């Protein structure tokens, strides 16, 4: 009976975990990179992937190029279906720069405009059904995590006109997301957004301002449009520390043991 349960668990795991799409992986690497880079197969594509256009370029900066260092389409967060298709559209002369390992969960969408520049930092993670539309310029910092069904879009796609000022409004504005940002699910990071390092963005927020001007550190943003709702709040990143915190009862969150508190503070240095 135990053996049967293990076999069923393996079957369920394979059904719910996207498989490597070998043909699309080979196509993507050799169409977007120089031969010496492409043969290393640094980008792995998983599951069903629709590729409408591959006229852009993939480059790696400040890091060693390793096989499978970029994994796109894996069902890593188990918050989306693997039955849908991911979509890649890379317009002519556009460029995506990776500075290290990065992971995209299932049903992702990446679209670049002509001459667009998209930079993705090392240690980044993108949840299921993430959409990144870069028509001009987007930079996503190191170790930033963006949860499922969120969108990062630097364009209105259409033009608008200010009747009072009698001027054309800019259709695109650069987006800069700092290092170690934690962005909640279903958030929209819109054109003109600029965030400091360690910013936390609450779920379902609409972010569209330059928060680099703020003198405060470790901001929490929330709302539509997003406003600063808290300061001096940082996410605890080390997995070992999180495991220790999971073992605590909810009643103990107010006052932690001194050793654990010191360990958390030391992790911020």
TrEMBL record:
Record keywords: Acyltransferase, Transferase
**Organism's domain of life?**
Bacteria
What InterPro entries does the annotation carry? Answer: Hexapeptide_acetyltransf (IPR051159), Trimer_LpxA-like_sf (IPR011004)
> Which terms in the Gene Ontology molecular function aspect does this entry carry?
acyltransferase activity
Q: Which Gene3D superfamilies match?
A: Hexapeptide repeat proteins
Its name, as the record gives it, is: Acyltransferase
Can you name the source organism?
Zobellia amurskyensis
